[in-house]
Amino acid sequence: IFQPQYQQQLGWIILKNYLANLSPLYLFDRGDPTIGCCTPFRMALLYPMELPFFLLGLVWIVKNRNKELLFMLSIFLAGLVPAAVATLWPHALRCVMTIIGSSFISALGVVVFWEKIRKPRLKLTAVCGYLLLLMVFLFRFLQTYHGRYMQAALLDWQTHFKLTSRVVRQVENHYDQVYFSEGFSRIELMWDLGINPRVFAEAADKN
Fold first, then answer.
1. What is the mean predicted confidence (pLDDT) over 6-14?
2. Cα 114 from Cα 137, distance rounded (Å)
3. Cβ(168)–Cβ(178) under 8 Å?
4. What is the reported pTM?
5. Contact 48, 28 (CB under 8 A)
6. CA pair distance 166, 152, nearest whole angstrom
7. How many C-beta atoms surround the C-beta of residue 122 within 10 A?
8. How many CB atoms are located within 10 Å of the residue 32 CB?
9. Among 73, 97, 98, 202, which one is most buried in terms of CB atoms within 10 A?
10. Which ranges in the chain belong to alpha helices (H)?
């Protein structure tokens, strides 16, 4: 945020970034746009069915205004600051400290909602419905994370170094020399292949 091109409108940009990380659409619908957080498979940071409980928790905090509740709200709001003063926004990793506050607010909403329900049958229906939705979203998350996402984000997490090294180990004895295309990191390859750093340091051709 302190790069020269941003200094003219620094205050406005920080506010804009802050609100972007606070947006309900970002938290409960679209999720993080960075590849490290499930792009191109955009997923919400918080489960969508948490939204009514989150809002109910916020209303309860504002209505009662005791020190403990306001403290938890301040933790949530303060956790958004690191992402507000950095580029590449919104950014889930830079808002990781909001997990404490958001979990508390949603849990508070659940408690308030539970106490408002008087009929046991209605309580059972609410619990079953919530658990069903939770299982659906959890299954969708696991399917995306362990399936499509691992393939889409392979290069971004640099997993290809280890996978390539495994193939090299299987075939290297059949060749005099093995070459890697441009873009492969020497350090990761040496680590995964178990090459002595001295061999690299003493080599005339570092490539």
1. 75
2. 22
3. yes
4. 0.71
5. yes
6. 20
7. 10
8. 23
9. 98
10. 10-22, 24-25, 51-64, 67-78, 81-84, 98-116, 120-143, 149-152, 159-171, 186-193, 197-202
C-alpha distances (whole Å) from 169 to each of 163, 165, 174, 194 are: 10, 6, 10, 10
CA-based Rg of the chain, rounded to a whole angstrom?
Answer: 24
Sign for the pseudo-dihedral over CA of 98, 104, 107, 108? negative
Sorting pLDDT into bands at 50, 70 and 90, what band is 52?
very high
**What is the CB-side half-sphere exposure of residue 145 using CA atoms within 13 A?**
10
Q: Give the Cα separation of 187 and 206 in Å (integer).
A: 11
Show the tokens assigned to 52.
Answer: 């009514």
Which tokens sit at 179?
């070459």
Q: Residues 23, 50: contact at Cβ < 8 Å?
A: no
Q: Which of 120, 121, 102, 100 is nearest to 110 (CA)?
A: 102
Q: What is the pLDDT of residues 102-126, one digit of tens each?
A: 999 999 999 999 998 888 889 899 9
Two tokens, residue 151 = 């393939």
- Reading the block at residue 146, the tokens are 């362990």
